[in-house]
Amino acid sequence: MPILQNLLLFLPPSLLTLFFYLYLFLWKKRSKPTLHLPPGRQGLPFLGETFSYLKPHPATTIGQFMQDHITRYGKIYRSNLFGDPTIVSADAGLNRFILQNEGRLFECSYPKSIGGILGKWSMLVLVGEMHQSMRMISLNFMSSARLRSILLPEIERQTLMAISSWKQDVAFSAQDEAKKFTFNLMAKNIMSMEPGEMETEKLRKEYITFMKGVVSAPLNLPGTPYSKALKSRSNILRVIEKKMEGRRHQRNEEKEEEDDLLGWALKQSSLSKEQILDLLLSLLFAGHETSSMALALTIFFLGSCPKAVQQLREEHLIIAGKKLEKGESVLNWEDYKQMEFSQCVINETLRLGNVVRFVHRKAIQDVHYGGYDIPCGWKVLPVFAAVHLDSELYNEPHQFNPWRWQQKSSSGMAVNNNFMPYGGGSRLCAGSELAKLELAVFLHHLVIKFRWELIQSDCAYAFPFVDFPKGLPIKVHAIT
Ligand code: HEM
Ligand SMILES: *[C@@H]1O[C@H](CO)[C@@H](O)[C@H](O)[C@H]1NC(C)=O
Prior knowledge:
Blueprint: H1 2-10, H2 13-30, H3 50-53, E1 57-58, H4 63-73, E2 76-81, E3 84-89, H5 92-100, E4 106-108, H6 112-118, H7 128-141, H8 144-164, E5 172-173, H9 174-191, H10 198-214, H11 225-252, H12 261-267, H13 273-303, H14 306-326, H15 333-337, H16 340-353, E6 361-363, E7 367-369, E8 372-374, E9 379-382, H17 384-388, H18 408-411, H19 432-449, E10 450-454, E11 461-462, E12 466-467, E13 473-478
Parallel strand pairs: 3-9
Antiparallel strand pairs: 1-11, 2-3, 4-6, 5-13, 6-9, 7-8, 10-13, 11-12
Bound molecules: protoporphyrin IX containing FE and 2-acetamido-2-deoxy-beta-D-glucopyranose.
């Protein structure tokens, strides 16, 4: 992004002025005077207000830009972001309306650069029937039967592998550990790759470069993160492709087939090789980046809330105690269902930390909502974070308070349809059940085996992708 900014600085001022007027003219022409658009402003030519919108801020806040705009214009305002005229919504009702009218009034519309990097068959980019069929494959793959019988034991196995490598009294990055854990889990589920093996580690390193490109400016010039990421993309695809070919051989030799996503996708004869590659890559992305941040945020919030840790530990010790009595050694679905307070902690972490802060949509018809017009073709950004941190909807929204999820009937929390950490409508996160399971099982072993402390003040920032700049360093002490 700084490159873009610099370019602008070096343009002769006269040229800039010319651009500016041209731009104002086009903007005026575009917005018909009879429309009742939400209030707002368009900002700089071309760039609009994109830089201010993307300015990093603590993840538990909505940031200065959002704050200022809501104060000045209200919860629905107009801006110019990512090169398009845009309606930004911090309004719970409009956000729901947008998500529930996917394919009718609105449509998923991520910036072109995302498609370039995740692939044109990625689930994040596809719309309509093709999206539906890719979605079905993902949902079947994470069905509740598979969650119980295959994913739960695998999550527990990998949790134990991860935390058994932790050394006491030596600081390490909890964020890196969380990323490694969720990456290994996805690599196993998708392609049966084993954690710790050289091939898996190599893919993980490649993936880190890839991620840096996904979140950077889409400048395909030599040496930029974006161009490095495109190279990583093809390296990653080559690994997946090699796996695919291995499977074909395996099948010819009539060996037992691996029960992973790759195996499933290969059985869908309607999918081309290119489509399978993009599907696998986008699932690796969707399933890894989000749940690792959720896990790191949980460790972070709990690190300064001993009362919640205490209550969690009690919950999990009771579960572990019952298992010991029955002589069982691995967690099963009944155990998972008893992790009730853990679910409160998970919800509260997602409400306050907002791993996915907003999604990209566009209007595919002229839409009328709450007295405002949203013209066909305009971008629309439902900002979940702004709803989750709204003091009109949550008491003391900046406090980490898992108990707020226990007060079911009285405050109407049980029918809280303003809480949308996983999006909604026909694009509701396909992996939400898997994510919850990962978090709860990890928490189970974490609170039983360890106490931990945050050893440097680090804070999650929204860049707008959420990240701990110092990697969330912690120290652990085994509980004896
Ligand atoms: C706490 C962790 C997670 C959060 C907060 C999260 C959040 C989201 C959100 C907000 C969306 C909607 C995007 C949009 O509407 O444009 C989404 C979609 C998706 N997520 Fe997740 N996610 C999480 C974990 C996972 C996991 C573990 C998987 C497993 C593979 C996964 C797979 C997907 C897929 C495939 C989609 C696309 C669904 C579609 O387009 O139909 N997610 N996620
Ligand atoms: C957590 O949030 C989900 C919505 O994503 C809701 O269905 C569930 O009841 C909540 N859990 C608790 C314990 O409140």
